[in-house]
Structure prediction request, 280 residues.
Amino acid sequence: MQVNDFLSSLNNVGGTLSYVGETTLGESIPMLSKGKGRGGVLLIGSTHAREYITSYLLRDLFEEYQGDYPIDLIPMLNIDGVRLCIGGLNALTLKLRDRITLMRINGGSTDFSTWKANVRGVDLNVNTDAKWGEGQGNLTYPSPQSYVGPCPFSEVESYAIKRVIDEGNYSLIVCYHSKGEEVYYGFSNNHKYRAEASMVANKLGYKLKRTPKSTGGIKDYFTHSTGRLGLTIEVGSDKLEHPITLERLDELKEKHRGIIDLYAEIAKKLWTKYDLCDSP
Ligand SMILES: [Zn+2]
Prediction:
């Protein structure tokens, strides 16, 4: 019920609601849009199931955003995974065979509260073709986390994101995860927008870091395919347990208030730089 309530609430936060694809279990993946013009910012929440606090945080920040600069928000990419994490196997309509498979992937347990993957046991943040399968900790078999999938973009959720990124011509994308209070930027040997990334880290009071051992992520794909700035934000103190519950929402909102305006400002400035340096 909690996820249904969340999805219905998206009708009441302003902006235009559209759908960018379907999940593995056939649920439409919503996107909210505000503003008009070239470039724009794409925000993505709940790529990892247990990090569903990011959906609520992004929804509420989006509701408060009053600017003209274009912002697209996909608040809950991994809807099936979030349902599984919050409600367990009974939250999903599954054949008996698929229930058994999921339990087996989950080490025989019916507790899915720390599950990160989609319902095929593929981690959506290692499933793109940005040096796919070359990351530290990547797994080659279905798992609650870190399985890269049978090939890049094997999952309908990853493919939906690829299409949004390829067609969106965004200036900046920001992927929300939990936890650790960190801002990750760059990919492989491209770290040229450090100054802009550090503006975000400074505003949030988070540490700025590179991700030399991570590949196949969504920000990796954007950085790799466009040469532009992609960020991964890890919200919430490392002292908190997974999943971070909604009791923490207010303090996170307090910390992030106005951050979308900063994303808009950075994206606008970067657009000029991209035109000069990268001729996209
Ligand atoms: Zn994550």
Remarks:
- The chain has a mean pLDDT of 96.
- The beta strands are 16-22, 28-34, 41-44, 71-74, 172-178, 182-185, 207-209, 229-235.
